[in-house]
Amino acid sequence: MPSPPSALSRALDNRNVLGLLFMLPAAALLLLFLTYPLGLGTYLGFTDTKIGRSGVWIGLENYEFLWGDAVTRLALFNTLFYTFIASVIKFALGLWLALLLNKHLPFKAFFRAVVLLPFIVPTALSALAFWWIYDSQFSIISWVLLKMGLIDHYIDFLGDPWNARFSTIAANIWRGVPFVAITLLAGLQTISPSYYEAASLDGASPWQQFRHVTLPLLTPIIAVVMTFSVLFTFTDFQLIYVLTRGGPLNATHLMATLSFQRAIPGGNLGEGAAIATAMVPFLLAAILLSYYGLQRRAWQQGSGDK
Amino acid sequence: MSTANTAADRPIDSQGMNYLVSAQRRFFTVYLPLGAFLFVLLFPFYWMAITTFKPDEELLSHEGNPFWVNNPTLAHVKKLLFDTAYPDWLWNTVLISVVATALSLFCSVLAAYAIERLRYRGSRYVGASIFLAYLVPPSILFIPLATMVYQLNLFDTRLALILTYPTFLIPFSTWLLMGYFKTIPFELEECALIDGANRFQILVKIVLPLAVPGLISAGIFAFTLSWNEFIYALTFVSSSEVKTVPVGVVTELVEGDVYHWGSLMAGALFGSLPVAALYSFFVEYYVSGLTGAVKE
Fold first, then answer.
1. Mutate which of A9, A10, A33, A284 to test chain B, going by most B C-beta atoms within 10 A?
2. Quick one: which of A17, A183, A225, B108 could link to B173 by a disulfide (CB 3.0–4.6 Å)?
């Protein structure tokens, strides 16, 4: 026979009490190591904190300094350039690869598994492979181009500002295309074949099918995937840190790498935090875009009727 | 469908365009671009592997065929394993990834169950904020976290990484598990409640066994994310014996002006193989984790 419920067990039957209890471990970790540091980072941006010395409130001084700082301005330009070029190419190549993988191919599962490899392995380690591929004296790319007679001396991939920008962008694209391709492929597979049957019965060409069936149905997931892609690219750190450390002449410094350099080796925690905080408005813009994409998707699926 | 898609075999077909596309055209529009993609995506791995086994003379020579090894050597691997702290880094990476993943899964299971099934007051807002937390990049958190790590006396310890990795693992795993829990019918839980089970028993005995694929997805994904983490490990740890593989290889194997490409690439290869192997066993779970987290 069950004994009459005690106050404790009655409290545990209450979903609010129980919910709070279940949320406790996750909430404690996230509030302490995510929410609090977010606030602390914003605060640090308004102080002159250095490593080993707690700072005082200096208002907007860090931001005023950074606004006039040529290196920071260059880093902002680099970040926008890097993000824009890399994202556009990642989208184009990723969509193309997704469409290729969506054809009826033998060993389809194998191809899909292999394609994702660049995204799986540690970026810092694959960046080392790129460092070796981009080496100024032993680059395999230069070797091949030289043998083909296309160039007459080895390319200085990472030593020249514009070469370095495009080389790092290429490495970023290499790593990001699999993510875009595999997630878009998942989106493509949710599109019912009957749409294509209907379209081809109506005499639509393959291009028309892509333009008027595939693309509209894929738009919501494209919005979300590209938001993630832009977010990851904008805050990229590892690739630049390994390949160039921001050089040559700060030509490849992104805001994340500059913030690290000023804060950790440079010791100016306040200034580094200000650079990191300056990235937030851009990230918020990307997240709002994602929210818009999700809303549209919900609307297309008809869940607005509920 | 793909077995008979030459125009000669079936000149007329009502089921779609595929049969009309000739084999030759298919080669140029499908197989050639796909081959190019695969070549570019896989070449860096081939290059890592071939460099690992090349003797220095061949690495630094402009003669001969660079795409092949004439006299394979294990010298670089030997140097990596016996003359550097690489085995320590490997052990640290395994330990930190396993503990951080287990901790995150424990927190995420409870949180996802509470948000999705207990539906306590305000759970919808908590669910949305979990998604937002997933979007907070480590690049904007590492400076404040570094000051906290100093103040908590955790600097240069494995615990610093074990406690900070859940900041990106919990939001991801919770979001993913919420999707899985959503698909489990409420009736199962109601039956168990009538039979006198409490919520914790329901979670362990009914919900979790049904959500095993979700748990594997979240676990694999969380493990690879921790294995690949770089910026926290670079900032919160400075002694060689506490470093993880990515940070150790990047900061300690690069010495001066002479780069030891062989051992550097060996370090990169052996740091990539464990995650690649794990991934190859659980591809489907990994992909469903990846796409699930984006699609939900």
1. A33
2. B108
A41/B135 touch (CB, cutoff 8 Å), yes or no:
no
Question: Mutate which of A125, A210, A234 to disrupt the B interface (most B C-beta within 10 Å)?
Answer: A125
Partners of A47 in beta bridges? A57
Whether the predicted model's global pTM rises above the 0.95 cut: no
Q: pLDDT, tens digit, for every residue of A176-201? A: 999 999 999 988 988 888 998 999 89
Of A228, A201, A213, A186, the C-alpha closest to A98 is A186
Closest CA to B158 of B82, B247, B278, B81: B247
Q: What are the DSSP E strand ranges found in chain A?
A: none
Cβ of A256 under 8 Å from any chain B Cβ? yes
ipTM score assigned to the predicted complex: 0.87
Q: What residues in A contact B235, CB-CB < 8 Å?
A: 260, 264
| Residues whose CB falls within 8 Å of the CB of residue A15, separated by 6 or more in sequence, listed in order | B118, B119, B120
Please spell the DSSP secondary structure of chain B, one letter per residue.
-GGG--TTT-S--SS-SGGGS-HHHHIIIIIHHHHHHHHHHHHHHHHHHHHHTS-HHHHT-SSS-TTS-SS---HHHHHHHHHSSHHHHHHHHHHHHHHHHHHHHHHHHHHHHIIIII--TTHHHHHHHHHHHHT--GGGTHHHHHHHHHHTT-TTSHHHHHHHTHHHHHHHHHHHHHHHHHTS-HHHHHHHHHTT--HHHHIIIIIHHHTHHHHHHHHHHHHHHHHH--HHHHHH--SGGG--HHHHHHHHS--SSS--HHHHHHHHHHHHHHHHHHHHHTHHHHHHHHHHHHH-
User: Are residues B177 and B218 in contact, defined by beta-carbon separation less than 8 angstroms?
Assistant: yes
- A131-145, A292-306, B6-20, B252-266: least confident range: B6-20
Q: How far is Cα A193 from Cα A222, in angstroms, rounded to an integer?
A: 19
**Sign of the dihedral defined by the CA atoms of residues B287, B289, B294, B296, in that order:** positive
Instruction: Give the residue from A216, A219, A231, A244 showing the smallest Cα distance to A86.
Output: A231
